[in-house]
Amino acid sequence: MFADRAKIIIRSGKGGDGHVSFRRELYVPNGGPDGGDGGRGGDIIFEIDEGLNTLADYRHKRKFKAQDGEEGGKRRCHGKSGEDLILKVPAGTIIKEAQTQKVIADMSGENTRQVILKGGRGGAGNQHFATSTMQVPKYAQPGQPAQELEVLLELKVIADVGLVGFPNVGKSTLLSRVTNARPKIANYHFTTLNPNLGVVDLEGGDGFVMADIPGLIEGASQGVGLGHEFLRHIERTKVMIHMVDAASTEGRDPVADIYAINRELEAYNEEIARRPQVIAANKIDALVLEEGGEDPVERLRKEFEPQGIPVYAVSAVSGQGLRELLYGVKERLDQLDPMPILFEPEYFPGEELFQENLPYTVTRSLEDEHVFVVEGPRIEKMLGYTNLDSEKGFVFFQKFLKDTGILKELEEAGIQEGDTVRMYGLAFDYFR
């Protein structure tokens, strides 16, 4: 079966611990602290691989872990950083948080590479904690913990135009005739089990990408058959071509088929059902009109063209009417926003770290009354996942101090301008 969904557990690397050691050399009997910093933990990175078109690589392996950072060493040696883990996915993959189903990232368009989980920052060695009153610090900062998350990967085909219709109405035949795609074609239900994409090239204009969405059945929106797996791929398409068997070679009513498919689309996602549509009345080469009988193509036009849905009589086998159909679709596409349909992020891994009600303490140093120490697991997490060297990170740091009430507690503890605030390996002067 086509592998377009997978649920996996990803874990970034833990930061290496800072090291506690002291310089010990000949003629230097009482050397200062020289413990090195721990290495950074590896990130979890998702990257598009144009050679992939399924998520099969994630169906049999569930856990993926980046490398941990190494502990710092003596003589101020920095621990080796852990290697990032790069997970390759096909273009069009949506990464969701498994429990809430909120979108973390849409690996489409220009977003070809994204860091999903940051590795823990390495802990500071004891060399950073020496002061005029504490010259032999026996404490080093532990490395920041790893982040772990269960994510759902969903592949949603990237195409401008989606071909929908009941099984065996000729969608694969049409796609093979008008694009460079080469789908398997046979005369039985559910021939197509995975979407096929092809590029339609038009004379004197830009082409577009067309996807043959596997055949739908009634109840697909409730998951009957392979309904959800198929409907998922329609979510990006801007225009839909409803293909019906105008000749009723299997005894189906083409008008009833259109309404049945639209009901499934509306039940699955009302916004999709409102997108522009055209109808391709296929198999007119096999159409035999009885004397006095109604032309099924004209019947389709009377029913749907007043609703703004144009009907094109075509034969995917002979090619009759295909030019008019393709240029009609292109005209509709030209009226729409050329940007691809992307899914905006709704979930940001790491944010919850700062929302937890974790404890912290604000105390005045016993060795120096002008030094205030802020400690606690919440502070460690914030420092581990914030880049204070960047302007954005520093602004976030200031906001964190204010929103958590740390600044207020420092003022209540009697801090004055010019006093020093220490947070593990970080020290800064306080100014209002």
SS summary, helix count? 10
What oligomeric arrangement do these chains adopt? single chain
Helix content: 10-25%
Sheet with most strands: strand arrangement: 10-11-9-12-13-14
Give start-end ranges of low-pLDDT stretches.
Answer: 183-192, 218-228
Structural class: alpha/beta
What is the helix/strand order?
EEEEEEEEEHEEHEHHEHEHHEEHHHEE
Largest sheet, in brief, is: 6 strands, mixed
List keywords for this structure.
6-stranded mixed β-sheet; alpha/beta; 432 residues; 10 helices; 20% helix; 5-stranded mixed β-sheet
Describe the structure.
The chain has helices at 171-178, 227-231, 254-268, 270-273, 296-304, 322-334, 351-355, 377-384, 391-403, 406-412, and strands at residues 5-11, 44-48, 63-65, 85-89, 93-97, 103-107, 113-117, 148-155, 161-164, 196-202, 205-212, 239-245, 277-282, 311-313, 361-364, 371-375, 420-423, 426-429. It is α/β, with parallel strands linked by helices. The strands form four sheets. It has a six-stranded mixed beta sheet, with helices on both faces.
Short characterization:
By secondary structure, the chain is α/β, with parallel strands linked by helices. It has helices at residues 171-178, 227-231, 254-268, 270-273, 296-304, 322-334, 351-355, 377-384, 391-403, 406-412, and strands at 5-11, 44-48, 63-65, 85-89, 93-97, 103-107, 113-117, 148-155, 161-164, 196-202, 205-212, 239-245, 277-282, 311-313, 361-364, 371-375, 420-423, 426-429.
